[in-house]
Design a protein that fits this description.
Elements (H helix, E strand, L loop, with lengths): L1 H41 L8 E5 L6 E5 L12 E5 L17 H9 L5 E5 L5 H5 L18 E2 L1 H5 L9 H11 L4 E4 L3 E6 L2 H24 L8 H12 L7 H12 L9
Helix pairs in contact: 1-6, 1-8, 2-5
The structure holds zinc ion.
Length: 266
């Protein structure tokens, strides 16, 4: 009897710690979503539009995304939960982003993706409307490719917004196994295994586009990052040495965006 009670106690304790760790994971993801939204705004990657989501750590068939609000203003209380059809979970009638289907359809198609960024990243847009491909100078994650999605191919004349599941699905298909897809005349969608990596990639997608434009102004042939070099860079990043990868830039950009360093770059 005593033994059984002890075992039951252990089970209860295990359950409690399971729930506690799920809550801790949720809190950490929401904190990163808030910081990530502020960073993307502070660094000029998004303006009043654009959004950042994360797969729900409690349920892989749900995702977390702010209510329809400018990214630079997002706080933890704005984060809402959506299912894989981009419907709101629970009773929550706050306004939602019309382009939330970008997120739901990418999460459905890509089990390896835990965070999605959608931006109108200004230097990226010219590469979506010309034949000039967005090729890597610094961004190793541009391999295998940075495809361009055109709403015209999927749905004819539209307002260019990914405002239904069919367009979201077509976009996710164009993204394939890549990390970045451009949206013609509109912006991009960038994915990653975590919020921090997705934000880092969205920032360096814009930075790489700027470098490429500048290199083209100088003229002559450009030495792009080779796929072999990109593979070494990505492998080094995956080793995750503290403060040698995206965590170093995250710490700085978070401090700036949340007011910690008192300096705003734009
Ligand atoms: Zn958009």
């Amino acid at each position: 009897m005593a033994k059984r009670a002890k075992a039951a106690g252990r089970t209860r304790a295990g359950g409690r710690s399971g729930a506690a760790s799920a809550n801790a994971a949720l809190k950490a993801v929401i904190e990163d979503l808030v910081a990530g939204n502020r960073i993307l705004y502070n660094e000029g990657v998004v303006d009043g539009f654009g959004h950042l989501s994360a797969r729900d750590p409690r349920d892989p068939n749900r995702f977390l995304l702010s209510r329809a609000r400018a990214p630079g203003l997002v706080v933890a209380a704005d984060i809402m939960t959506f299912d894989m059809d981009a419907n709101v979970v629970g009773k929550d009638d706050r306004p939602v982003y019309s382009e939330r289907f970008i997120h739901s359809e990418i999460y459905k198609a890509r089990p390896d993706v835990n965070s999605v960024v959608h931006t109108h990243s200004p230097t990226v847009v010219p590469f979506s409307v010309t034949d000039e491909p967005l090729r890597p100078i610094r961004a190793g994650f541009f391999y295998p490719a940075v495809p361009v999605f055109d709403t015209r191919d999927a749905a004819g004349w539209t307002d260019l917004l990914i405002s239904n599941a069919a367009l979201g699905r077509a976009l996710a298909e164009k993204l394939g196994n890549n990390s970045v897809v451009l949206l013609r005349g509109h912006g991009n969608a960038v994915v990653g295994p975590t919020v921090r990596v997705a934000v880092y990639r969205a920032f360096y997608t814009e930075a790489n586009a700027k470098l490429l434009l500048q290199a083209k102004l100088l003229g002559g042939p450009i030495k792009y990052l080779a796929p072999e070099e990109a593979a070494i860079m990505e492998a080094n990043r995956a080793r995750n040495r503290p403060m040698h990868g995206s965590d170093r830039i995250w710490e700085l950009m978070r401090a700036e965006a949340m007011g910690g360093s008192g300096k705003r770059r734009r």
